[in-house]
Design a protein that fits this description.
single chain; 22 strands; 8-stranded parallel beta sheet; Immunoglobulin-like; 476 residues; alpha/beta; TIM Barrel; 6-stranded antiparallel beta sheet; 27% strand; 2 domains
Length: 476
């Protein structure tokens, strides 16, 4: 049982620690002059970044690029940029996994012994569960923050946005047993609680002050960057992390940036697949789902916030299920898709790891090329002016479904899933002459071009395809 005295001492230490630690601790990195990625002022379902309307499309590693010292982040960001990927998720180091977690081979979130780097400095006392000394939660590890800032700056220069995930629930005791916040792994006498109480406003055994101080420090250190979105927590719903705790962390982010030059977006992870967003802190502008279905966008579109899909998996290792997921989310009005790509691993930072068939997801260079097709397709449209339209396609061949984004005076974009040979769509095409292009979602090639006259229903016969195809109509 933790005594009262160490908590009082720690709280006093943290008060000094938060006040005395700032972006001046480490020399500032070279930063872009543009404002941070923000919500587009004309359509809040999308981003504005470096002056351009943006839908974030990515396919990246399992979130350990920062905390795993064996991971070469420069090679990784070079590979993302070369493949046209625009976003990656990054865990802060407040959470780490043991090797073998979730049956992931070469898991980047599971560093080898003594290769884990955390925001908190190591003490002089041995006994950390995965090798090395225990942590001192009142001292920052300056080498960690140097790595954080050079990594983030490198990504910025490569045009890659970082969704920086501050916290993650402790799924099982195996993760809690490795956490620096666990009393057995620190020298501060805090964290003597069960894993389900770690992220609570009133039962955390002194950890809330630690979590708030860490949030302030990370937000301050990353403030100069233009490529950062702060995500409160990964999958809080899996272990029922209270909404008031999540709101408190969002408030700490907002409070910290009030006195800093730049203001960054905050994202909140809502549910697996779909669900309705519950009242959130007003500072949250991005709501993310994992393994999302199009209905996640439909159900929350009226919030006028970015709805994203920032983790995939559990549909096998083939490309097709994740390509379908990406297109359906984006063509429903979603503003982000980020695939969990297991071909990136320590020693394989260029994305060439041939993972086993037991991996809980997919990813490879070929899939990233398919995501580039989606990126180019959506950014080739005036998507800020377009809106989801479930009525424009009035009928489809049995087995086929269609998702459409529409600007009646200018463009219609449709994603068709299912069907295949002899698929037919009936559309209510607005008046005018329209150029029609059918696009292969794997190669990006235009496989058929025609024209139609609008002002009346039009029947369009698709070229033969296997599982999915895209269609755009541009008014002449």
């Amino acid at each position: 049982m933790m005594s009262f005295r160490p908590v009082v001492v720690l709280a006093a230490s943290l008060a000094w620690f938060s006040a005395s630690s700032s972006v001046r601790d480490i020399p500032a990195v070279q930063t872009a002059t543009s404002a941070p990625i923000s919500i587009h002022p004309e359509n809040p379902h999308y981003f504005l970044w470096r002056g351009k309307p943006t839908v974030l499309i990515g396919s990246g590693e399992h979130y350990g690029a920062l905390l795993n010292l064996d991971f070469d982040y420069r090679t990784y960001f070079d590979a993302l940029a070369a493949d046209g990927m625009m976003v990656t998720r990054l865990f802060s180091g407040s959470y780490v996994e043991p090797q073998g977690s979730f049956n992931i081979a070469r898991n980047t979130l599971a560093p080898a012994p003594e290769r884990f780097i955390s925001p908190w400095a190591r003490s002089t006392h041995s006994g950390y569960a995965n090798g090395g000394n225990r942590f001192d939660l009142t001292r920052w590890d300056l080498s960690y923050f140097e790595r954080l800032k050079t990594l983030a700056a490198y990504a910025q220069n490569k045009g890659v946005v970082i969704e920086f995930t501050l916290f993650c629930p402790m799924y099982e005791d195996t993760q809690w047993n490795l956490s620096p916040m666990n009393a057995v792994n620190n020298v501060n006498g805090v964290g003597n609680v069960g894993r389900l109480d770690v992220f609570t406003p009133d039962r955390s055994g002194g950890l809330l002050a630690i979590q708030e101080a860490l949030t302030r420090k990370l937000v301050a250190e990353l403030n100069p960057l233009d490529n950062v979105i702060f995500e409160i927590m990964n999958e809080p719903y899996v272990r029922a992390v209270p909404l008031d705790w999540q709101r408190r962390i969002a408030e700490v982010i907002v409070e910290t940036e009030r006195g800093l030059p730049k203001k960054h977006l905050i994202s909140q992870n809502i549910a697996n697949k779909s669900g309705t967003v519950q009242p959130a802190h007003p500072g949250v502008s991005v709501f993310n789902f994992h393994y999302a279905v199009a209905e996640a966008v439909d159900a929350n579109y009226d919030l006028n916030r970015v709805i994203g899909d920032n983790e995939t998996g559990f549909k096998g290792t083939a490309d097709t299920p994740y390509r379908l997921e990406a297109w359906e989310v984006v063509m429903s009005g979603g503003g982000m898709f980020n695939h969990l790509d297991y071909s990136f691993a320590a020693g394989y930072e260029n994305g060439t790891f041939a993972y086993p068939s037991t991996q809980p997801g997919g990813g490879n260079a070929g899939f990233r090329r398919q995501m580039r097709v989606l990126r180019d397709f959506i950014h080739g449209l005036d998507f800020v002016a377009m809106r989801p339209d479930r009525a424009i396609v009035t009928s489809t061949t049995a087995g086929a479904t269609a998702r459409a984004l529409v600007l009646p005076s200018k463009a219609i974009a449709i994603f068709v899933k299912g069907g295949g040979a002899a698929t037919r769509l009936t559309l209510e095409v607005p008046p005018g002459t329209w150029a029609v292009e059918w696009v292969d979602t794997r190669s990006g090639a235009t496989v058929l071009r025609t024209t139609v006259a609008g002002g009346r229903p039009q029947v369009l016969d698709a070229p033969t395809y296997e599982t999915d195809i895209a269609l755009r109509l541009l008014r002449q």
